[in-house]
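Document type: protein sequence-to-structure record

Subject area: structural biology

Format: plain text, a pair of labelled lines:
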Amino acid sequence: MLFLGRCIKLLQVPEQFALLVNVGFRFYSSDLEVEIKKITKIINDHPFPDQPIHPTLTQVIPSVAISTSFVEQILGRLFATHTNGLKAFEFFKFSLQFPQFSPTSDAFEKILHILTRMRHFSKAWDLIDEIQKSHPSLISLKSMSIMLSRIAKFQSFEETLEAFERLESILSDGKQFGTDEFNLLLRAFCTQRQMKEAKSVFNKFYSRFSPTTKTMNIFLLGFKESGDVTSVELFYHEMIRRGFKPDIVTYNIRIDSYCKRGSFLNALRLLEEMEQVNCFPTLKTITTLIHGAGITQNTNMAHQLFDEIPKRKLLPDSGAYNALMNAYIRSGDVKSATRLMDEMEVNNLLHDNATFHTMFLGLMKSNGIDGVLELYHKMIDRNFVPKTPTVVMLMNFFCKKCKFDEAFGFWNYLIENGYCPHSHAMDVLVRSLCSHGRVEQAFRCSVQVLEKGRHLSINSFRVLERSNMRHASERTTD
């Protein structure tokens, strides 16, 4: 630390960055997780692109700390906290300068996912071109899938086909893509429920690629995601007619399709059919059925299916517990759902985001603010940061109940953990704070977002603008 302090003086580092170094980068500490969170927060708080970020990274991260695992964990946290994608990209490029860092597929896929999620497609293409030259083995089917699925979501059908052809020209080394790559293109459209486009792609490339059962399952998945049970079954019979043999994935998709439409008995019939043809159900199959029983509020059957898990020589995980918990919540039995949370702890199963989200939903409907606050403080005490839908739901609930101290405290908790809340949560909080005269707090939240290199939504900006004009008018009147 003395050495770092001298370096800071020599480099004439601004006082605030010297403070950041002094409070925290003890890389020989046993608690590496704490240090990773600190670095993530520094990256999130940095005013890039108004100021270059590489000098800051050099000042606060000793070169001896850079390792493959370290970079992967930072990128994972930046992804989870919805950081500005360009900052994450700068950190990745910074890491590449160190010879001890050998980029992995995991690190490459994380940064590619971060960039494409924020629609920085030109940067993503630059990254692919660079990695293809330096580490071509990192470009896998998964990384290609990330690229194609995001382009299909945010850009046109033609641009997605162009991206597929561009990837082929970059990666194939003179060899044409095969069925696996073709399946990625189909999945990109099917997961976005763009079935018309998926059919067009299938017809366009059918003669070039040989479809497999996996190809047919991708189509089934698309129809299922579209909520079209009839099309799922029609395509399934077409699949059989063409000579494709259904596998466990095929059955799981069909079962999920029936469950989500409330046709639980049809889903159970498929379970029996599976067992008759020696296609044995997996934990995912049973979990899906438990969830389906919950949709029809058949908690007895949900519990029976859950109890069958060990009898089938399977081990229940958090997903199975969450499915049963959801069944209890749907039927209004919050006490039984709470007991399941305790049972998870006894069995050393972590409460994940689905656990908290499901319980918050149930408590909001039954116990009201007191029950929600009790679970909320339990979540905070565990230093757990929920995903965006749960953040937005909690922010909405606190603001509707006029619990502005909790809402503002929740915001600060997220910021302190390096998380930049989604614009929906920001809109809810700013609107509520301004409408109840807490304009200064609303402006403080807005500044924090801007300091992280993110933009305010038009809604938040207009609310702040009107509040500022109203207060200016009131001061003039006074």
